[in-house]
Give the backbone structure.
Amino acid sequence: QVQLVESGGGLVQPGGSLRLSCAASKNIFTFLSMSWYRQAPGQQRELVASMTGGGTTIYAASVRGRFALSTDNAENRLHLDMNTLKPDDTAVYCCRGRSPEMKYWGRGTQVTVSS
C-alpha cells in the first residue's frame, strides 16, 4: 500500500514562509505525477502545484512566483516551498501521487496565514 504523509504546516504571519513536505513510501519518480492541492473552508479543492515523473512543473496562477516544488530523491520527498504567504493561502494542503492504476492521497497539513 502506497502511503503519502505531509508535514510542515502551521501558523505563519502574512509575508512569511513555510516548507511543506510529502514523504512517499516509494520512489516519487515512479509516479506519473506528484501534486499539492489545497482546500480552504467552504471552497473547492484546487491544484497548487504539480510535477511529472520527468520533472516538468506547473503552478496555479495564484502561487506562481511565490511557491516552488523541489525533491529529495534519497528521502522520497516532494517539498513545497511557500514564500510571501497571504491570508488567502490559508487551507489544508494535501499531497497526491498519481499512478496508472490509481491516485494516492495524504491526509493533509493545515496552513494558516494570519497576523
About this structure: The chain is about 0% helix and 50% strand. The radius of gyration is 13 Å. The longest strand covers residues 91-98.
